[in-house]
Amino acid sequence: MSNSQTQIELIQPDDWHLHIRDGDVMRDALGDTARQFARAIIMPNLNPPVTTVDLAKAYQARIESNLKSLGINGFTPLMTLYLTDNTLADEIQRAKAEGIAALKLYPAGATTNSDAGVNDIKRCYQVLEVMQQVGMPLLVHGEVTHPDVDIFDREAVFIDQVLEPLRKDFPELKIVFEHITTKQAAQYVRDASTSGKNTIAATITPQHLLMNRNAIFAGGIRPHNYCLPVLKREEHRIALLEVATSGNLRFFLGTDSAPHAKGAKESARGCAGCYSAFNALGLYAEAFDSVGKLNRLETFASFYGPDFYSLPRNTKKITLTKKAQNIPSEQPFGDATIVPLRAGETIAWSLS
To answer: Which residues contact 109 (CB under 8 A, 6 or more apart)?
Structure first.
């Protein structure tokens, strides 16, 4: 990567955690992402969820149809399956053969469209054993959902109650601890023993690098800054920024861009999710620039993700420019509108 004060050239990144929904709204979410990224891990929490290879292939066909209608070439959706208590081991074998990239673990009730998620991870042990054998990564939404656990503590409790026992039982299972939000998660992934094999990694979102939980309440409720896992204290944001910019190969880019129509966010029971796809790379550049680590953006954004997934790195180069850009207050989203992250604000970096 070459960089100067006002411009950065880097290998085109991938997004290792993305929601694009389905139906009419997919086109708008997909267009924003494909403008910046070469590949993306597509989340399977549709309604109903993508639980089988056949459903994943059908979803992929809909994505490719939208890409064609948008005139976009060179973007590859990486499909995933939604793990449930009833997932069959045979489906994992087929998924591996059909090029499915990973399975996603949602604890039941943890986030949007997660009601069909896993209630007891031990019910999935036969499936996890096959995943370990064939090298299929498990992507985890790392929160417990017990009502007696404070929402700000759910990630730390997940590490102790679920993740650490899981890794002991399946030491060679590749796990991505997705959208981490706490210093406990950052330190756990950084320091985890893997017996010489790279079996654990974590994705980090732009909102968790740039904002703490005050952003949800500044001057009143800010529903478009509400996501799950929820933003945490400033000490956690600092810890995430430290590991993201450290050059550690276990941490890489995953936006968790999660589109919801403006009305669904600004309601009595507003949906969780930040829509960062509009200018995700500019947001990441801002975060790295804030601590003088732009020289480490490329490895975080472009190298460590494909390395973990055993995929080739991209070769095309892109350029980010430090030039003020106004983020629109809202933009089209199907027959409604959506409010992007940092709407109405000016950010410093954008894709040239």
So the answer is: 115, 117, 145
- Contacts of residue 272, defined as CB under 8 A and 6 or more positions apart, other chains included, come to 111, 112, 226, 227, 228, 230, 258
Q: Which domain holds residue 128?
A: 13-315
Q: Helix (H, G, I), strand (E, B), or coil: what is residue 32? A: helix
Instruction: Decide if 188 contacts 163 (C-beta within 8 A).
Output: yes
Residue 208 backbone phi and psi in degrees, to 5: -80, -15
Residue 189: give its domain's CATH number: 3.20.20.140
Identify the residue whose tokens are 């941490």.
Answer: 251
Q: Is 256 a catalytic residue?
A: yes
What pLDDT, on the 0 to 100 scale, is given for residue 88?
94
Using alpha carbons only, give the angle 263, 63, 28 rounded to the nearest 5 degrees.
Answer: 35
State the amino acid at position 289 in one-letter form: D
Instruction: Identify whether 93 is part of a domain.
Output: yes
Residue type, 325: Q
| pLDDT tens profile 19-49 | 999 999 999 999 999 999 999 999 999 999 9
- Look up residue 43 and give its two tokens: 């989340």
Spatial CA neighbour of 223 closest among 330, 336, 339, 345 = 339
From the list 14, 32, 256, 289, the catalytic residue is 256
Residue 161: CB atoms within 10 A of its CB come to 14
Per the listing, tokens 């929601």 go with 19
Does the pTM of the predicted model rise above 0.90? yes
Calculate the dihedral angle through the C-alpha atoms of 98, 110, 28, 50, rounding to the nearest 10 degrees.
Answer: 30
Ranges of the chain whose pLDDT falls below 70: 1-4, 109-110, 112-115
Count of structural domains, the chain: 1
pLDDT digits (tens, 9 = 90+) for 295-331: 999 999 999 999 999 999 999 999 999 999 999 999 9
Q: Do the domain assignments include residue 346?
A: no
